[in-house]
Amino acid sequence: MVVTDSPLAPHKYVRRISKDFSTVRRYSxxxxxxxxxxxxxxxxxxxAESAAHLPTCSSPTFRTPISTPRGIRRHQRMRxxxxxxxxxxxxxxxxxxxxxxxxxxxxxLKEHQPRSWIETNFQKRExxxxxxxxxxxxxxxxxxxxxxxxxxxxxxxxxxxxxWLPTKHTRPQPTDAYGTIxxxxxxxxxxxxxxxxxxxxxxxxxxxxxxxxxxxxxPKLLITVQGGKANFDLQAKLKKxxxxxLLKAAKTxxxxxxxxxxxxxxxxxxxxALLLEGQQRTGRVVSxxxxxxxxxxxxxxxxxxxxxxxxxSISSPRSKLAVLNNRHAYFLLVDNGTQAKYGAELILxxxxxxxxxxxxxxxSKNHWLKTNVTHSSTPVVCxxxxxxxxxxxxxLEYVTxxxxxxxxxxxxxxxxxxxxAFVHKYASDGEEQTVLESMRxxxxxxxxxxxxxxxxxxxxxxxxxxxxxxxxNLITVFRIQEKPEGEAQxxxxxxxxxxxxSQHLSPPEQLSLALTxxxxxxxxxxxxxxxxxxxxxxxxxxxxQALEHDRIDFxxxxxxxxxxxxxxxxxxxxxxxxxxxxxxxxxxGYILRDVRPxxxxxxxxxxxxxxxxxNKLMGGAYRSYxxxxxxxxxxxxxxxxxxxxxxxxxxxxxxxxAGANSLSLVTGLLPFxxxxxxxxxxxxxxxxxxxxxxxxxxALLMWTHGEEAxxxxxxxxxxxxxxxxxxxxxxxxxxxxxxxxSYAKEFESKGNKLLDFSxxxxxxxxxxxxxxxxxxxxxxxxxxxxxxxxxxxLLAHPCSQVILADLWMGGLRxxxxxxxKVILGLAMPFYIRQLDFKSKEELQQMPQTEEEHLENQNLxxxxxxxxxxxxxxxxxxxxxxxxxxKSVSNSTDALLADTYSVRDTKVHENGKVNxxxxxxxxxxxxxxxxxxxxxxxxFFNLSEYNEVKQHQPLRLKKKFYEFYTAPITKFWADSIAYxxxxxxxxxxxxxxxxxxxxxxxxxxxxxxxxxxxxKVREIISSEPVAITHKFSVWAxxxxxxxxxxxxxxxxxxxxxxxxENTMDIGxxxxxxxxxxxxxxxxxxxxxxxYLGPLVTMMGKMVKNMIxxxxxxxxxxxxxxxxxxxxxxxxxxxTWSLIKxxxxxxxxxxxxxxxxxxxxxxxxxxxxxxxxVTGHWVTPITMSMYLLxxxxxxxxxLIAVFNNIFNEVNSVSHQVWMFQRFTVVMEYxxxxxxxxxxxxxxxxxxxxxxxxxxxxGEPGMSKFSFVP
Length: 1267
Prior knowledge:
- Residues 192-468 form the TRPM SLOG domain.
- Pfam families: Ion_trans, LSDAT_euk, TRPM2.
- The protein has 54 helices and 15 strands.
- The chain is an alpha/beta fold.
- Among the domains are: 115-217 and 255-363 and 372-378, no CATH class; 383-503, no CATH class; 564-646 and 673-796, no CATH class; 1102-1222, no CATH class; 1238-1266, no CATH class.
- The chain has a ten-stranded mixed β-sheet, sandwiched between helices. The protein has a three-stranded antiparallel β-sheet with strand order 13-14-15, with no helix packed on it.
- The longest helix has 37 residues, at 1091-1127.
C-alpha cells in the first residue's frame, strides 16, 4: 500500500494504472475510440470518487482526441471486442476505487504523524505544464505521455515551440520515496539506502544526510568516476588492474566513490570492483550512486516513506530505462520532473563534489596548542574510464574549474579515455601545440569514427581536447606497462600521486594527507625525498597524528627521518595521547574507575591517574614515576605553563590546571625550563601508553626502540596479564581476555628470546642485566619483574639459575655434598675454615643489597690497609634502602681498582666512554674508536697482574661472615631450629599440662613469639610506603598470612592456658594449632627439586577441591535432609539435627554405608518399632545418592586432579625453579639467627640503625632490620 501526502493523489493513481491502459490496448487490440470511451468513463468515475473521498482535490481532465472509424472492417472489429473493453474498464474502475479508499483511510492517520527530517528537507519534482515535444506531439518535453500527464487548473498547455525548463514548469513537493533497497538474486541480499530528491537540493543538506541520517564519516578522499553510459568491455588485464587499484585506493584512504548509479557502462565496471570487495569481507566501501529518478526502471516500486523495497537488478531487454547497480551502498535519485532522460543529476553531482572539496580534513584541534591537525581540504580526483562526448566536456570542466580537479585517465579503456590519453601524450607544455595541430585531420577523423558524429561536432570536440591539454599537469594517464615486478605503478598510486602534483601542497600538508590516507608508500616515495626541508614542528605534528591514529608505519618513517622522540614527547603530549578518542577500543576506562570512583562524564585523565592504574596493575611494591613525590611539582609547573600559554582559547583547561599550583609549595619556587616537560626514556613511556590503550603493534615498535628492552618486555607482559585479569573480573567479552593473554604471551616470548641471545653473547653481562637496579622501573630488577609477571620460562633460563645458585650459596664455593658440609659447619664452627670460599673479586661481582654492601665495607676497612683500599670500598648510591639488587662496577673497574682511584663509567650514545675521576684528578675520556694504543698496552699489563690477584683468599673473619650470611646456611639453620621447635611443641601437647610451663613449652612460646616479631619486621621493611601496600606485598606469599593466623591462634590459646579455669581450652587450642605447624613443613620441602612441584600440585588441588565441595554439599544436603525427615518425623528442634543430617551421608562417601540404618526393620512385631510413613523411600534415595556422589562426583574430582597433575608435571622443572627464586629471596633477606635467637639480630639491627641515624650516614633513608 502506498501512502502519499500529495493533494493531487488521484492524478498519481491514474498514472499508476496507465500501464493497465496500455495492457488493455496491447492484449485486446482495442481501437482508440473504445479506449477513449474507457478513459472517459474512468475519468468520470475518478472525479466522482474524488469528490466523495477527497473534497479538496480537483478531478483530472483527460484531453483525448476523438477518433473516427477509418472503415467498415475496423468498425466491426470494434463492436466484436466491446465486451472485452467493457470488462477491462470495470476492472480499472475497481482498482481506482480501492486506491482512493486506501488513501482516504490513511489520511486521518497521516495528520497525526510528524514528518521525518528527510521529508522536511528533500523534495521531488513533477511537471505541471504540458509542452508538446517537437518529435512527438503525444509526449511532453518532460518525457511523459499526454494521457498520463497531470494538468493544473489555470495552467494551459504550451505550444510545440516553447522551451521547457525544470525550474519553471515543475512544482516541488515533499519527497515520497526514501528507505532501503534490498537487492535480491545473490547469495545474501545486499542493502542500500536511497532517497528521491530535487535537482536543486542544497549540498550541505546532502552532507548532513550522509553524516546524520546514514551515519557516514566524512571522506578523506573523493573519487568521482566518469565514463560511458552504454555497456562496454575492457581488456582482461586492464579490468583487473582497475578493479584492484580502485578498491585499494578507496579502502586504504577512506574514500567515497561517486558514480552514475545505474547498472550500465562504467558504473557496472565499478560495481564489479565492489563485488570483489564484498567477497573479501573486509568492510564495505562507501559507494554513492547519483542517478536520475526518471531513468530508473520500475521507480514506482520505490515510492513510500522509509520502506524496505525488494528489488532485482535485472533490466528488461526492450526497456530504454536502467536498473540500479546492486553493489552500491547509497543512492541519490535526482528528480527534475523528466522521465526517461539523462542529465538530471549532472548539476547536483558537480555542486556536491565542489562542496565536499571545501570541507576540511579532520577539523579537530590540538588539545593544548589549539592548532589544526591538518590544514588541507578534502581532495577530489576524477577517474575517466572509456566515455563519450559528455565525458570530454566533463574533463574540460574539471580541469578548468576553480579550484581545478585532477583527472586520471585509464588508457586502453576505449573512446574518450583513449583520445584524452593520446592527446596528453603528444601535447606540449606551452601554448602552441604544433604536434597536435599537424595531426588535426587525423584526430577529427578519429573523433568522427569513434563517436559517430558530424564534422562540426567533431571539430568542436577537437577544440575541447586542445583546451584540456592546456592543463596538462592536471591530467595523469594510467597505462599498463610491462615492467619488472615492483616498478610498475598501480592505479591507486597513480590517483594519489596525481593529487600531489596538481594541488601544489606544502610538504607538511602532503604529509598530513598521506597520514590521513594511511599510505606510507606515497609518503616514502613522494614526500620524503632527498633535499626536502621541513619547518619547525611540522614533523612533530605528524608524529602526534601518527601516534593518535595508530599509524605504525608512519611512526617508523618519521623516526627514520629525524624525529627525536626525546625532544618530541612532553608531559602534555603524553597526557593528550592517553585522552585521545582515536585508535582501538581499550579497557583503560574500566580500570580507572577502580582507582578513581565517581568519574564524571568527559573527565580528562591526568598522568597521576595513569600512575595509579599502573600501580594497581603492576601490584606489589611497584610505584610509577607519575605518582612519586618528585614528579608532582614538575607536573604542576609544566601544566601551569602550558595552561597559561593557551589561556585565551580554553578557559576550562586553564581553570583546571591553575589549581595544580597548590599541589606543592615547591612549585612556585621551581624555575620552569623546557627540559622539565621531557622524559629521560620516552620510549618507555610510550610503551606503557601503547600497552594500556591496547595498541599491540605500537607497543612492539616502542619495544624495539630505546633502552632496557628486557625490562620493557617484562613490564608489558605483567600489564597485559593484569589487564586480562581485570577484564575477566569485569565480565567483559571472552575475546578481550583471550586477546590480552595472547599479547602477554608474545612479550613473554620476546623477553625469553632476548635473554637467551644476550646470554649466548656474553653470560656475565646477561647476569648483570638481570640483577641491576632499574631506576626508571621503580628501582626493580629484571628478576623481580619476572617474578611479578609470573614469567616461569625466564626464571628457568640457565642465566637466571646461575644467578640464583650463586645467591643461594653466598660466599661458599662447594660442588659436592653441599648440604652436608653446611650442616657440619653449623654443628662444628671450626670446620668452616676447611670450606672453600670465593675470592674478593668474585664476591664483588655478585649482586648485593645495600646493607650487605655497607657491612662488607666495614669489614674490609678493618682488615685492609688504608693506603690501598679494596675494590669493595666503592659505594653504591641509592635513593632508598630497599633490598632490591644493585649492579656493581664492571670488570674493568674491578681490575683497575687496586691501582687507580675509583671512577664512575658513563657510556654515551656516540661511543665515548667517560671515566669521572675523583676530586683531585681530571676526568679522562676513552674513545672506543680512536684510543691511544698505549692505553691498551697499559690495560693489558694491568690485566695480567690482576689475574693473579683474583685468587686472593678471604680472611678468617670474612669467611665466618660469608658462611653465616649465606642463604643456604640460613635455610638449614632455620629448618633445624624449626624441627626442634616441632619436637618441643609436640612434647608440650602430648604430655600432661602442668600449672607452671615446662622449659619445652617456654621454648615453644619463645619461638612463636620471636617468629611473630619477625613477621612484623618483614612487613615494616618491605618496599612500599603505605602500610596497606606493605601488608599486601607481604601477604603475596600464601604462607605469610597462614603464619600470622597460626601465631594469633597460639596467642589466644596462651591467654587461656595461663588461667586455671580455662587451661584445658588453651590446651585444645594448642593441639589444633599444632596441625598447621606440621603442615608448614611443606614450605621447607618446597625447596626440593622433586617435592617442590608436588607441593604446588597439592595447593592447586586444594583450590579446585573447594569448588567440588560446593557441588558435594548440594547433593549431600539433598539426601541427608530427606532421609532424616522421613525416618525421624518427631524430632525436636536441637543443634544436633545438623550433625544427624550430614553425619551418615558424609561417611557414606568413604564406603561406610550404614547398612542397618538404611532400611531399619519395622512392622507389626511387638519387638520392632512401627514403620513410619514412606520408609521405603529411603533406600531408593540412598541408592541415587551413592550413584551421584560416589560414582559421578568422586570420579569427576579424580579427573580434575589428574588434569592438574599432568599440567604441573609437564612444567615441573619451571615450577621448581620459580619456587626456588622465592625461597632464595626470602632467605637472602632473613636475619642470620633463627627463632628464638632471632631476637638478638633484631636488637642488633635496631641499635645499628639508631647509630647510623645519629651519625647521619647516607643510604639509610628508612628503617631496616637487615643485619
